[in-house]
Structures are given as C-alpha cells and as structure tokens.
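Design a sequence for this backbone.
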C-alpha cells in the first residue's frame, strides 16, 4: 500500500455515502451505491449494515461487520476525484 493512501478517518453520512480523510489531506464524501454488487457487498444494501462502516484497526481499510472491505487505494481514487473538483 502507498503511504499517500493511508486512511485515517471514516464516517457514515447517510444513504450509501461515507466521509473519508487520508493522511495526505485528501478528504471528501463519496457515494458507494455503485459498488454494492457481488456476494460480499450486496448485503450492504441494507442501510443498517452499511452504516456500520469503520476503519479496520490493523490495516487502514474500510470494513463492515459482514466481512466486506474496500481497499484504501480504491477509495482514495474515488475521494480524490471529489476533492479535486
């Protein structure tokens, strides 16, 4: 993992949106509704489950109680697009 993509803050903001902040200052709210497909991610369409998003304590990835996770490089790029606007 590249150090520039280190995820340091994540919070649920409603629907399928998450506010993210990275160590290099890149931050913003991203919509993950388009990523909720496949066996691991479809259960996250339940907003009660989706809202339980957090950063894994051992490695800086977004995780949910059902075992779903998203790599910081992927969400960094999505967040950077919002940040650069």
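Sequence:
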């Amino acid at each position: 993992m590249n150090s520039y993509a280190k995820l340091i803050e994540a919070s649920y903001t409603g629907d399928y949106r998450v506010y993210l902040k990275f160590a290099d200052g890149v931050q913003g709210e991203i919509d993950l509704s388009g990523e909720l497909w496949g066996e691991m991610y479809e259960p996250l369409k339940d907003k009660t489950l989706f809202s339980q998003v957090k950063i894994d304590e051992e490695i800086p990835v977004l995780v949910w109680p059902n075992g779903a996770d998203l790599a910081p490089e992927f969400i960094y790029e999505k967040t950077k697009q919002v940040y650069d606007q």
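The chain is about 20% helix and 30% strand.
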